[in-house]
Each structure stands twice: as structure tokens, then as C-alpha cells.
Amino acid sequence: MSAAILPPDATAAAGAPTASVDDGYALVAATPAGPVRLSWGPGVGNAAQAAVALHALGDWLEQLEDWLAPEQGLDWWPIDDAVHALRQVGVDWISAAVDTDTVSLSLPWPSLRELPEPPDALRLQWPALPAELLLARQPLPPEAPDQIEPGAVLLLEPSFEPAWIVSLRRSGADDDSDPGRPLVCDGRLAWPTPVTPPRREATRPRLEVRMRLPTLVPVPLLAGWHARDTAFPADAPATLHLITVDGHDALIAEGQLLPWGRGHALRMTDVAVDARSDKLSWT
User: Per-10-residue mean pLDDT for the chain, 283 residues long?
Assistant: First the structure.
């Protein structure tokens, strides 16, 4: 079906904090799925102390190698002033505490879905994080932005497909940092599917419709290691975003999801002041 924004009168017809290494020391190793980082608190402040702390991990470190790099092993190297150095290379880390040590383990988000579930012997304590459902990603309809107004309705193209594929991901994530975990949904529940969600095309602007979940979601669910149906929160607001060719994410409107024939639509209730601004690249 073609994309459409319907005018207002048409509607009547139809968690836990992540670990910090700000005051400590970090070691980094390469794995087939990407870099991995071990971080200590203020008690480990230089390379020599980190080497002693690494040796003390013993069997735990062997379990880590079996999970992340069973063929090549892990070759650890120090980073001076680790936090600032790692921020410069743009790594988007997610950290887990280890229950019996002062060390934390960090991995880049894109690595999580390439890895099997970590063994229980690692005793990793992952946080729960704000999450959202990416409900639709579709081209701009020809009438945008002229009909972006309170009461207007945007038909969600993917919801009219035989299988409506959505993505569960961290709130505010993008394709590069967290492409999302694919789910099939019916407008009330969403459940896991092996189908890969379509990625954003970088050649033209797109619209995205998202729904933020009211409760924090544990990392093992976001990573796909654990499976659980996700309920659409009753009357939860959804947001409409314009994603420009250069990757700029602009909030366009907020609204409510509603059934529309055999699919669903977003009825806009609040429109951003600059939704029709010439500063936004709609073309």
C-alpha cells in the first residue's frame, strides 16, 4: 500500500545503573564480535595493578575466553586514561557487574546479538534499561509536511503486512548502535521472530514511529538471549520521527496508536513547533 497521512476528519470514518570506570583502570581485548573491556574501581590505578588483578580472576577469565574467543583467546592491553580514550573512538558500551569482584565487563551493543548467552559461571549482573518498540519505518508520504497537524492520522505501512515486524531496542538507539531485536506483533502483543528487521536507507529521509515501554527491560531480553512476549502498554503514547539523510533524528509529533482496518495507525495529538520548519530536510 502507499504511504498516507489522513486529515483529522478522516478519523471519524475509520534500571539499574551501568558500571563506571571514571576513577579506576581498564584493559581491552579484541574478540571476533568486537572489543571487550574489563574495568576496575579506584583500587586498581595502573597497568601493574591491573595485571595482578587480571591474574587473580583465574578460572573466571578462562570462562570469559570460552564465551568470547574460544579459538584465539583474549590478549589484554592497557589504555591510559581509559574512559576518555574509548569515548574518542565512539564505542557504545554496555556494562555488567561481576558479583564477587570489583571488576565490570563491558561490550559494544552491536556485539550482544552476535554472541550466545553468557554462561552462568561468569556471574554477570546486567542492568535493565529504558526500551522502545520501533513500530514502523517507512518513506515520506507525498502530503508531508503539509498535513502534519493535531488529529491527522498516519497509516503504519508495516502493520498492514501479513506479519507486522517491529524491533525491541534501547530508547533512543539507532541502527548503528542497536539495530533492535525483531518481534512479530498484532497490536496487542509482540513475540520473538527470526526475521531480520529492515535497516534504515541512508539515501532518502524516512519516518519512524516508536513506542516507549513503561518499564525497564533487562539486557538479556534486549540481546535476544531470553525470550518473552512484550505487551503493548494500554494507551501508551507513540512518537513520530523524521530521520534525515544525514542521520538527524527530529521529533515530529506525539500521538496514540489505534486499529485501522486490518492494520494500525498513529493519530497525532501534539505536533512539534518546528515540524513544518524549513530547517528540517523533508526531501
Answer: 48 35 75 88 84 89 94 82 43 79 84 89 92 91 79 94 90 73 86 70 82 91 86 83 84 93 94 64 52
Q: Which residues contact 191 (CB under 8 A, 6 or more apart)?
A: 183, 184, 185, 227, 229, 230
Residues 6+ apart with CB under 8 A from 167: 133, 134, 179, 180, 181, 182, 183, 197
Separation of alpha carbons 177 and 92, rounded Å: 7
pTM of the model: 0.79
End-to-end CA distance of the chain, in Å? 21
Q: What angle do CA 52, 53, 54 make, to 5 degrees?
A: 90
- Give the three cell numbers for residue 5: 497521512
* Cell 581491552 found at: 28
What are the sequence ranges of the domains in the chain?
5-15+129-271, 25-126
| CA dihedral over 128, 173, 152, 277, signed as positive or negative | positive
Longest dimension (CA), the chain: 72
How far apart are alpha carbons 199 and 207 in whole angstroms? 13
Q: Which helix (H) or strand (E) covers residue 66, if one does?
A: helix 59-68
Cα–Cα distance for residue pair 202/96, rounded to 1 Å: 33
